[in-house]
Amino acid sequence: MTQALNRKKHDRLHDAVSGSEAFIEKLLFGNRAMLVFIFATLTVFLSYQASQIRLDASFEKMIPTSHPYISNYLEYKDEMTGMGNAVRIAVETTEGDIYTREFMATLQKIHDETFYIPGVDRSALLSLWSPAVRWLEVTEEGFAAGPVVSDTYDGTPASLEEVRANVAKSGTIGSLVANNFRSTVVYVPLLETDPQTGEPLDYHTLSQNFETLIRDKYESDNIKIHITGFAKVVGDLIDGATLVITFFAIALAITFVLLFAYSRCLRSTVISLLCSVIAVVWQLGLLRLLGYPLDPYSMLVPFLVFAIGVSHGVQVINAIAHQAMQGSNSELAARRAFNSLYVPGIIALVSDGVGFATLMVIEIAVIQDLAIAASMGVAVIILTNLVLLPVLMSYAGVSRRALSKLEHEEERSKHPLWTRLSQFTERRYALPLVLLLIGLATGGLIGSNNLKIGDLDAGAPELRPDSRYNRDNTFINQNYSTSTDIFVVMVKSEGSESCAKYRLQDVADQLQWRLQHLPGVQSSRSLADATKAIIAGTNEGNLRWMALNRNQQLLDQVSFRARFKDASTFNASCDLVPIVVYLNDHKAETLDSVVKVVERFKVEFDNDEFTFLLAAGNAGIEAATNIVIEKAQYKMLIWVYAVVGLLCLITFRSIRTVACILLPLAVTSILCQALMAQLGIGVKVATLPVIALGVGIGVDYGIYIYSKLESYLASGRSLKEAYFFTLKTTGKAVAFTGITLGIGVATWVFSPIKFQADMGILLTFMFVWNMIGALVFLPALTCFLLPSKRGKTVPQSFDHPGGGTTKAV
């Protein structure tokens, strides 16, 4: 009676697929040759497509375009030229200052060379050689103005002195010219599309152009070139990302060696790895067919697909070996293995795919593309590792050496490690583990309180602190008053020609005063600054006049002159005034403090005449991204666990069973967040998906373990006995997979890209802890949450998984 009830519960696993195993088994194994031919043809075709995939990134794909801040930026982007995506080229002299004939000649060549690089917004390009960079002064005859480098410049000492004087009058010291006069900046705003091809800007090609046409061509013993900006970061990441192929090869080699040592069968090792590699090739080929590029932030997805493929492949090989050991021929062993793994394998992979798809709730295009790539890869694994792998193994079979090794292991009635682990199904051993799990969760929650949103380091945290880019960024921050991190608040007024109103400029001036007293803010500028400077200039430079005048006619005249000096002070219709704030860095706390001040100010001063809009500038865009990430991280986790939990509930029809599978995963996610806090890794676009991807991998372990455990329970064994045999079959495959993949991805620590090294640490942690959770904590939770399955351990005879009979442990 008890065995009949257990068998009925076990049959629920198959309800999810309505008994389709037999039909699918006949369809696949009855047409093996045709199936192999189809797979081979598709692999050749998709291999070609994969070879054509390009590495690229888009600035707008990295930002949450639906966020109000970004919507404001995109709406006024054309009127805010140069305040979004831009590159800075700092040209430094190692001898004397910039006012030499040789240096100015080199700077002119660099300006001209940059002007013709595809993707550069030529109308907004700024340097000392730009006609738009002008000086302005008040003389006895009135106002005088002109370009910093005049048309009469000829490199003589007199003309160089004229340039020196013009720079002093231009207000560019600290922005375009270094405070020590030993370097100057070429400011290079970028377009979103290549004007020659109409395609999205290729940042890798653009970065290489800056290297070959500027740095390599003009850097010498006397001239040093420093380049910063989003495009350069992406270019460096893509250059470094090509090393991912090397690390992938290393991981493949490590997996091969360990899998062969585990199975002692060369043919099954090669076929298992081949199917996992085919899954990666298919994924890349399909991405190419659908028009998706591979960006630096989704480079971990192919390895993730490989890891999941290996995980399922090991389970298939393990099941085939056990069937062959019981006397089945190659085809029959493959058929039986397919039947036994069809349901848990499908459920696990569907859980993976749907779990990855939940990343689509994050409205950042690069993360949504990653979700599509990961889900597509999992869908491919269903075909390559649950279908093609057993079909190929039905031809190859398992070697006699591998079967002898397996028979020797099965003859041991008490394997020391499995015997020890099976004790965790007893209350006296399970209770300390459950308490430990609660303690780990509590400690993880406390540790994760320090987890920050956004970047925690200056420069580009994705790269090593000593990378060329971060050294260049440090140089600019140390030598210029205006940093590379710009936060722009836009003041939008009602009606054209309204930006010069006293009330608007006065309120803008007040906001600047508040911001300049914040830690992390270097300086700021707006129309109000230019207006005050010109008013003082018209009054013999008397500082007492360095203030806004309430005479509106005077303000109108002065504002016009301000735009003549600097066209970025307001837009052409005079209804949009940018307040440009220069920050020390773009760390999360710096951006957060600026946003809070502006938001409070906005509530206090917005009216029918004008309103304050956030935000433009690279720091403003990053602030919006941080806000979206902060809201999305828990929303994403809720969706991931809800979807995976629902699929497990449909499969096992038990909330308690779902808890046994998901609680260890949840603790791993919490501990991963605590680890990120300890390592100084912030939650941002590059790191947010990792936890969700880790859940997808970990749920495979739990589903395979519990499915096998329930099958042994259904035969009448006690929980301890059932778990002992689960460990000897599925459990050892899970342990091998977790350790092998952990070792393979740990090699990423040596990557020159810090982002990849950080991901290596986090993925290694999640591979290993998900394995521990499935092997150690899942049975302990089962002991308490499913007491009806515990049963009594009484001596009895039963069939051993490997053949023969064995007394109960």
From TrEMBL:
Superkingdom field: Bacteria
Task: Report the InterPro entries cross-referenced here.
Answer: MMPL_dom, Mycobact_MmpL, SSD
Q: What are the transmembrane regions? A: 33-51, 240-262, 269-291, 297-320, 341-366, 372-398, 429-447, 636-652, 659-681, 687-707, 733-753, 759-786
Please state where this protein is localized.
Answer: Cell membrane
Q: Where is the SSD domain?
A: 270-395
**Record membrane topology:** Multi-pass membrane protein
Q: Which Pfam families match?
A: MMPL
Alphabetically sorted, this entry's keywords are:
Cell membrane, Membrane, Transmembrane, Transmembrane helix
Question: Per its record, how is this protein called by name?
Answer: RND family transporter
Query: In which organism is this protein found?
Result: Marinobacterium maritimum
